[in-house]
Q: What sequence folds into this?
């Protein structure tokens, strides 16, 4: 047999969605040496092929791209990133929300990361102290390349990380301090080095509720929030000139500075600045906001030549909490005061104090203060508690039965049970028809999983699967709002193109990163709650999803990483799966394969 006929993997008889948005059709794929070498309407020669996957009745599509994660610490401890790969994700982006592990030392990185992203400091700090031997973008990329990566990875340079590396942590969180001209020039130079190393751009943060961990400056906001727009403009000059991306977070409490981001993206008389912000959601606290900002972004892109995208989550934004440990409480004074304290005895004493409770009730009852959380304890269900009589009830129901304020009912239970009290609420995307409108929005990209962060609070690792379920359900019910082809494009090809990375398409001669989806597995399990231990972080139990019937196989670099509920024995341990994706390394796109009548009939 001649070498040209040899395949490492054959995927036969699946309906191919190539990521272009064009018409799908039944195809047979041959993979060799990490490349898609054959896309055929007729069966391929299987002789000598060590792995043949029968995808009859299933969907074959590019591996999903998750462009907003916080895997910065986890990738150093467990580079397989199994929780994303099992859901068909083959490429991830981290360094989000101004936090990265590129320039600052281990202690500074830990202080910036662990409280904001709700990961265990007692494991992250020793990990960073043990492995972090780099302080430059080039050194960071080289370290990533040395790891047995599971998915492909790409990163932003975090502005908080950059600011601390240049100014020092103490000055970077002092609102009276500004970088001098030499320091600002150094920031621009390091950002240029990061882009030379292949990083995607810069991530920033202006929401004040993201706070530092540790003892040195505990509860100070992230360093990026102390920057003036003059500093942002200087860094945007570098991004604009290089065609790089500004990933940002406006002040999501007041929302007003989103107009500054929009203006910076405008391309009239200059190059547009590629800008993406969190997030386009149908929040309960402001049900009209998503309609306004979605249309505003589209208008800026079409009329003012901007290149602006909101990040949009295609599923309900449901959050869980153990006691009072949830980031939404950082948005008002009483919540900040409790979360500032790490000692349980001190925290309980505070929550029992009547003056503190009056302040909490005042914050809770305020109808006109800016907020993200809807502040309604009647819409917060207890799911686990040593006192089983309260499980399944809301704090509001318990308060009504006792004739007390909902805040008092909540604080009483937190003081009595601490983190053994687990509860949930949905903050946004609670109206299915509005979610369908959001994922169709031309000013949005499908993103914002926050994978790797908030491990006890949120689980959106499988958001692409949830989106496919939503689209497929509507099709089955005879009320389609989006074709499967377009949904796949929004989850793959559109993201690869906009972020400028080699991902998101299946094409002959292209890298073989793909996922096989069983549409029969797009069932209720897709949204079911589950937990799994994180071995790399002391077996802390992470919120996850388990939809193993939906994902038949995940293939990375032509190697079957995951198949039918099992990972390859060497996955996450051996090189040869994922690689570092550098910005701009995108091959020329071939025209999508034409689907013949015979293939359509098949």
A:
């Amino acid at each position: 047999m001649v070498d040209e006929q040899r395949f490492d993997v054959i995927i036969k008889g699946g309906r191919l969605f190539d990521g272009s948005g064009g018409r799908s059709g039944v195809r047979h794929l041959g993979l060799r040496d990490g490349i898609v070498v054959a896309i055929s309407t007729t069966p391929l020669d299987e002789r000598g092929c060590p792995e043949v996957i029968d995808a009859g009745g299933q969907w074959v599509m590019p591996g999903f791209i998750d462009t907003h994660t916080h895997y910065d610490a986890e990738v150093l401890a467990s580079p397989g990133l199994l929780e994303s790969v099992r859901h068909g994700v083959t490429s991830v982006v981290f360094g989000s929300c101004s936090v990265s592990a590129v320039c600052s030392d281990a202690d500074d990185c830990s202080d910036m990361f662990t409280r904001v992203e709700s990961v265990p400091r007692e494991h992250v700090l020793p990990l960073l102290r043990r492995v972090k031997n780099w302080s430059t973008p080039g050194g960071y990329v080289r370290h990533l390349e040395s790891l047995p990566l599971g998915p492909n990875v790409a990163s932003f340079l975090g502005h908080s990380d950059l600011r601390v590396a240049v100014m020092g942590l103490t000055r970077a969180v002092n609102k009276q301090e500004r970088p001098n001209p030499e320091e600002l020039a150094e920031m621009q130079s390091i950002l240029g080095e990061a882009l030379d190393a292949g990083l995607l751009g810069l991530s920033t943060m202006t929401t004040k509720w993201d706070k530092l961990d540790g003892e040195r400056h505990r509860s100070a906001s992230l360093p990026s929030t102390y920057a003036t727009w003059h500093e942002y403009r200087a860094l945007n000059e570098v991004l604009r000139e290089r065609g790089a991306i500004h990933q940002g977070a406006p002040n999501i409490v007041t929302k007003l500075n989103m107009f500054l981001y929009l203006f910076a993206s405008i391309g009239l008389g200059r190059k547009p600045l590629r800008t993406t912000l969190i997030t386009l959601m149908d929040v309960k606290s402001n049900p009209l906001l998503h309609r306004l900002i979605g249309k505003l972004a589209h208008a800026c892109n079409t009329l003012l030549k901007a290149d602006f995208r909101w990040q949009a989550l295609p599923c309900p934004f449901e959050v869980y909490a153990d006691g009072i440990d949830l980031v939404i409480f950082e948005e008002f004074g009483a919540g900040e005061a409790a979360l500032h304290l790490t000692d349980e005895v001190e925290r309980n004493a505070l929550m029992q104090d009547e003056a503190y409770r009056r302040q909490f009730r005042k914050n809770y009852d305020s109808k006109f203060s800016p907020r993200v959380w809807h502040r309604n304890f009647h819409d917060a269900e207890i799911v686990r508690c040593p006192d089983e009589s309260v499980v399944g009830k809301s704090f509001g129901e318990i308060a009504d039965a006792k004739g007390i304020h909902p805040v008092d009912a909540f604080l009483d239970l937190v003081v009595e049970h601490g983190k053994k009290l687990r509860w949930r609420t949905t903050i946004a995307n609670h109206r299915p028809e509005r979610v369908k409108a959001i994922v169709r929005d031309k000013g949005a990209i499908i993103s914002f999983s926050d994978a790797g962060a908030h491990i006890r609070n949120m689980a959106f690792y499988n958001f692409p699967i949830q989106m496919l379920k939503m689209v497929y359900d509507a099709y089955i019910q005879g009320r389609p709002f989006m074709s499967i082809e377009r949904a796949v494009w929004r989850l793959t090809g559109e993201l690869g193109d906009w972020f400028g990375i080699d991902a998101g398409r299946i094409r002959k001669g292209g890298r073989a990163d793909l996922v096989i989806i069983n549409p029969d597995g797009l069932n209720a399990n897709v949204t079911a709650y589950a937990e799994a231990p994180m071995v790399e972080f002391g077996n802390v139990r992470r919120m996850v999803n388990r939809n193993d019937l939906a994902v038949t196989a995940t293939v990375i670099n032509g190697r079957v990483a995951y198949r039918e509920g099992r990972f390859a024995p060497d996955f996450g341990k051996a090189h040869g799966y994922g690689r570092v994706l550098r910005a701009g390394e995108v091959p020329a796109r071939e025209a999508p394969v034409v689907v013949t009548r015979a293939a359509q009939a098949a």
Observations:
- The chain is about 30% helix and 20% strand.
- Confidence is low (pLDDT under 50) at residues 589-602.
